[in-house]
Structure formats: structure tokens, C-alpha cells
Amino acid sequence: MNHGEAQGSGGRHRGSGGRSPSSGQRGHRHNSENPVTVDRPFGESSCSRNRGSQGRGRGRNSPKQAWVVTSPQVSHVNRKSQEDGTGSTYKQPDEVAALKISGDDKDLLQSSASSTSTNINLVSGGEDKDVRECIVIKQSHVSLSCQESPSSSTSDHKVEISSGEDHDTAHKSGDAENASNESEKRPFDLFLKTKVFRLKPSVFELNKDKRKESKGYTGSVIRPGMVLLKNYLSINDQVMILKKCRQLGVGEGGFYQPGYRDGASLHLKMMCLGKNWDPQTCRYGETRPTDGSTPPQIPVEFNRFVEKAVKESQSLAAEIPYMSPDICIANFYTSTGRLGLHQDKDESIKSIRKGLPVVSFSIGDSAEFLYGDQSDEDKAEKVFLESGDVLLFGGKSRNVFHGVRSINKNTAPKVLVQETSLRPGRLNLTFRQY
Ligand SMILES: O=C(O)CCC(=O)C(=O)O
Ligand SMILES: [Fe+2]
User: Fold this and answer.
1) Pairing of strands 195-199, 159-162
2) Which SS3 state, helix, strand or coil, does residue 386 take?
3) ipTM over the 0.90 cut-off
């Protein structure tokens, strides 16, 4: 956790948004077969936690393929040729291994080239055709290296390429994965499953992350009872939280695709810890009705962070009561994920009456977070929640309407992505005491 001087800060703007459900079947763990996406306004769900959704009808990019020479000779890929589509490099020679680029390969390759460089050298160092080991793309400012993600399988030859400069391709792959029936059969993995090529972050980017971290956190009261602790969780804390959530997320009671009673899907993946929150009944329970699973316990380290954050917030807003969480709802948003304006009021009447705070951790890509006194986006305030930020709302703000309007692609700290294989998107944990 960062330690620093608590100071006032934090901008406010107005915001808006919407939600768009897709069809699904009640009683199935994964209910997004044949998803149909339609837009409808916020506030139509029967739940107080009106978990709005993503799916603004963005196109899902089908994977494209690029062909990269892996035999020991050096190949030069001319950037101009890539841009105008005339480059012979994209033809499939005999001695090539296919790198499947999910999304727009042109974007990817453009982003991998610096603005001043015209050539990218594809250097193959290995005798065998194992692209994991042999491809290194170097040019003046960045290098593209291939690493195997922890969960990759040797028999799986699909390779995902993502760029530290521009995670667009991997974002698209994440979107596609959300939609595919195939992915519905597997537990949702916070980390990219396949071999990952990443542009190594530049020294400049890494230093920027480090500088930010070394500044410590700043706290501010953004409305009575609502405290924002910016940059509160250190990168190490975030890595630990991500690894733990990823591990829990692929096990029993892990991440799943939640849906409402009316068949609408929330456009996020969810995992509940401690108790299950059921979007169909808007109640907490000991098991998840869709599959009978028991939610994992909240890791003790998480609770320590929360309790410390509550104490910190009390030094800024004394009216925020102390709380010790027994519920954590983890949401993972891809780049198109969102959540409609809602109130968190399915906790016990006592908890809400006392104004026990909801404590929210943001990790990964940043989000446009809306909050206000009404379920009206046009009247809501807006704040950007970035990786490492902790937001608390209790006391007078316990019933504040809030939601996530959008996720800002490619804004996660590079070092975090590098250390975890975190898929593009945002993890949010909200802790509550029932
Ligand atoms: O993702 C966020 O920042 C908010 C999540 C939230 O409001 C909820 O889970 O109830
Ligand atoms: Fe909420």
C-alpha cells in the first residue's frame, strides 16, 4: 500500500451512459448463448443494484492473421507496405508460423513501430519453429518479445499479440471472448490464457509508472461521505490482488456471466466472495443459485487493505463509520463493459442505516465513474477511477447512485500488465458489510 500525505484533490464533471442487455436463460451458469444486444435506458431492472451493461453494438473483430518468418534469416517488414496493404510480408511463405492476431493487425504493427522508424526487423534466433522462443522484434524505442503466459498450454498454437503502446488488439480479443459460446464453457480467466506477445514497455513508460507510485496517495472528500484515495494501492498490492482474484476466479464460485431475471446479461463478469449476490433476486445468499457453487472467502489481505482504507477515509470524513467486510463483489469489465446507475442497497437494513461504507478498489484500465443523487446520467458527476484508486461511500453517501459509464482502453499501468498477463479491462472489487 502506498503511504503519503492526504491532500484534497479530484475533479468533477457531468456524465451520461446507458445499458444494453442481451438475452439469456435463467438458471444456467452461462446464459449468453445467441446473445442479442439491444439498448435500453438505465433503471429498468427490478434490482436496486441496477447492474447495467455494456454492448453498445460495437463490432466484434474476427481474428486476422499475419505471417511472420521464423526461419533463421532476418526479414525486414516495411512499415509503408503494411500501411498501404501492399507489403509482401503478409503473404504466406512456406517456412512461416502463423501468428494469429486477434483484431486489427495493421493497428498492432503500426503501434509497434515508432513514429520515426520505417523498418521493423523480425529477428529469428532459433533453429526450431517455436515462436515463443525465437521471435524478437526490435526497433529504436520498443521491443516486442514473446512470452508464454502462465496459463498457456503447449498444445495450443494460438498466439495473442498485445501491445504495451496500444492494447487495442487484445481488447478486441477480450470482447470477442465475451461473446463466444466457446468461452462460456470455460471459467473466465483474468489473465490472458494464450501465449502473449507484448511490446515491452519503454523505459519512459515504466519510469512514469514508478514516479506515480513513489508520489504516494492523495485523499479527498468528493461529496459528503464519499472519499477518493487516489493511487492508494501500490503496484505490488495490485499484483497480489490480481493474482489472488485470478486464482479464485477460475475455481468454484469464480467469475461467471451474470444475468437478470428478464434474461438481460450484465456486461461484465462477476465473482462474489463471502456471500453471493444474486442479480435475479437482488439478495445475498450462501450459494450461487445458477450453479450451486459456494463463494470463496475474502482473502484476509484484502480485508486488511479495506480496514486501513476505511481508517484513512475517517481522517478526512469523520462521519464515515468503521466497517469490516464480509462481502466482496468482483466485477471485470472489458473495454466495452459498463454498469448502469444504481444504489447498493441489498445489504442489511442495519448496515445501510448506519451508513457503513462500500469500499471500491479499481485495478487495470481506468473507468469513467458516475455518481449522484438521482438515477439520471445527465445529472451525475463524473470521476476517473484509475488503477490503484480506492473509493469509499458511506454515511450521507451510502445511498448514492453510481455506475460505470466507460472503460478507457490501454490505460492500465504497463508494469502491472507486464507482471500479470492481465487481460485488457478493469477489475473492480467492492467490499461491503452485510
Ligand atoms: O465498478 C465500479 O466501480 C462500481 C461497481 C459497483 O457499483 C457494484 O459492484 O455495485
Ligand atoms: Fe454499486
Assistant:
1) parallel
2) coil
3) yes
